[in-house]
Amino acid sequence: MLYARRGLTGRLTAALIAASFLTACANAQAASSQPTRHPPPVASTSVTPASAQAGQHLPAPTPLFDPGIDLRAAAVAVPLELQLPSLRLTAPVLGVGLNSKNVMDTPMGSANDPVWQKVFWYRGSGTPGDATTATIAGHVDDVLGRPAIFARLKDLRVGDTVTVRDTRTGLAVDFLVTRTITYTLKQTVDPAVLAQIYGSGPVAGQGPQPSPDGLSHLTLITCTGNWIGSAGTFDHRLAVYAVGIPSAATPDRSRS
Fold first, then answer.
1. What is the topology classification, in CATH, of domain 12-250?
2. What are the pLDDT digits (tens) for 192-213?
């Protein structure tokens, strides 16, 4: 069921707790009847209500989306674009919440649906560029096993640049990759690992919290490893961690 709910302060609600990957992947279905191999959601978390604010990562005339939209509502378009220059990759961003299994939503579609070439910013995490942690997921392949938007995420290296651009203003926030970590499914139900991926606030049910170092943090996440047909999921998750460069607001370089 999809619905919208506004709290006393008009804020989103979400909290992250550890959950089984098999539970998270049980709802993976494609709109096409052709394939039998279904990529699972790339996040391993279940979610229950708590507070998380939808802020603005860059000077902008309006918020990224209506803050009254509940996290259980469908994905919404947000005026952001993810750029990975070293991979020559640019992707539009959808703002996602929770699916019916209380797991971070990672929309799917038929084999030719453009959703496979989009990335998903979790609306319950921080806003990219704020001094907190923002989380962006993407599929590694589509329902036919063809490369999807994050098929080459594993090729990012420490020191590579990740840019999140506001398509309304042309301003951008730059991040530098600091590390990449491959997690087993068992590791990804560890609250400490979830706190690294989403920040401590959403895991504790308090919404995005200020980073102890005062910097903006970004997590990119996707599936990796071997496909386990009986489980309907890959056996590992890949997380790329990046930190915002001070004085992060920069002019739009895509038009130069």
1. Sortase; Chain: A; (2.40.260)
2. 999 999 998 887 777 889 999 9
Contact 123, 70 (CB under 8 A): no
Entry pTM: 0.78
Instruction: For the chain, give every domain's residue range.
Output: 12-250
Which residues are within 8 A (CB) of 8 and not within 5 positions of it... i.e. 6 or more apart? none
Radius of gyration of the chain (CA): 17
Name the 3-class secondary structure at 134. strand
First to last CA, the chain: 45
How would you classify the pairing of strands 119-122 and 89-96? parallel
Q: Express each pLDDT in 30-55 by its tens digit.
A: 333 333 333 333 343 333 333 333 33
φ, ψ of residue 178 in degrees (nearest 5)? -105, -25
